[in-house]
Amino acid sequence: MDKVVATAAEAVADVPDGATLAVGGFGLSGVPNVLIEALYERGVSGLGVVSNNCGAMESGLAVLLAAGRIARVTGSYIGANKEFARQYLAGELEVEMIPQGTLAERLRAGGAGIPAFYTPAGVGTQVADGGLPWRYDGSGGVALASPPKEVREFDGTEYVLEHGIRTDFALVRAAKGDRHGNLVFNKSTRNFNPLAAMAGRLTIAEVEELVEPGEIDPDAVHLPGIFVQRVLALTPEQANSKLIEKRTVSAPVTKGAAEGTVSA
C-alpha cells in the first residue's frame, strides 16, 4: 500500500479542533516541524498534546502553543519554554506532568494494546498520591489537581498503576521511510518518535529521505509500517532545516598557547 501524500496540508487535512495528538521529538531533535506548521496554517485549536516537551526556540509545538491552539499538554519537561510556563501558571493551559520514563512507557503500552501497567516511579509522591496542579486559577491557587492513583505491593515493593496512552493522531519525523511506512530514525530522534507513532490511531510521518519498498533492510527498520498510515516526503530544504538549541564552542586558541610557549 502506497501511503505517500503529496503535501503537508493534505497529510493533516482531517485533523479537527479538539483532537488529541502524540508528537515525537525531544527538545529540537526529531520534531515533525513541517506537519506542525501545516496544522498551524489550518487554524485548528483546542488540541490535546502528548509530547515530552512543548517546543523550544519558537519552533515545533511552541508555534501552536504561542497561538493559543493547545488546550492540554501531557509531558515531562517544561524547560526554558517561558510561554509554556506562563500559560500554565496563568490558568490558560491544563498540564499533566509525569515522569519521563513513565511517559515513554504509557505511549508504548497504548500502542501495544496494554491498557495499564505498574511502575515504582512516583510511589510516595504526588504522582501517586494526587494533588499535582493540572490547572491553576490564575491567582496562585489550584483549580484542578491530579487524582490519586492505585498503589499495590508486589514482592514487598510498592508500585503505582499507570494507564496506556492512545491519541487520535500522531505526528513523527524519521530520517528515512519507504512508501509502506517503514521508518528509520537517526540516533537521538529515536527516543520518543517510535513511541508516539505507536500511540496514534492515525499516524503521519514526515521523512527526510523517501525510498522504495525493499530498500530498507528489514533488520534496520525501527518502526514497522503497520503503525503508520501516511508518509510525507520532505524537500531537501525542509530535511536540512535543523536548529541548534544551545551552541557551545571552544575559546579560540592563540598561536603561542597552541605551541606550548609562555609569554614573559
TrEMBL record:
Keywords annotated in UniProt: Transferase
PROSITE patterns: COA_TRANSF_1
MF (Gene Ontology): transferase activity
Pfam families the record matches: CoA_trans
Domain of life: Bacteria
InterPro entries: 3-oxoacid_CoA-transf_A, CoA_trans_fam_I, CoA_transf_BS, NagB/RpiA_transferase-like
Keyword Cytoplasm part of the UniProt annotation: no
Keyword Transferase: yes
Similarity-based family: Belongs to the 3-oxoacid CoA-transferase subunit A family.
Name under which the protein is recorded: CoA transferase subunit A
Source organism: Streptomyces phaeochromogenes
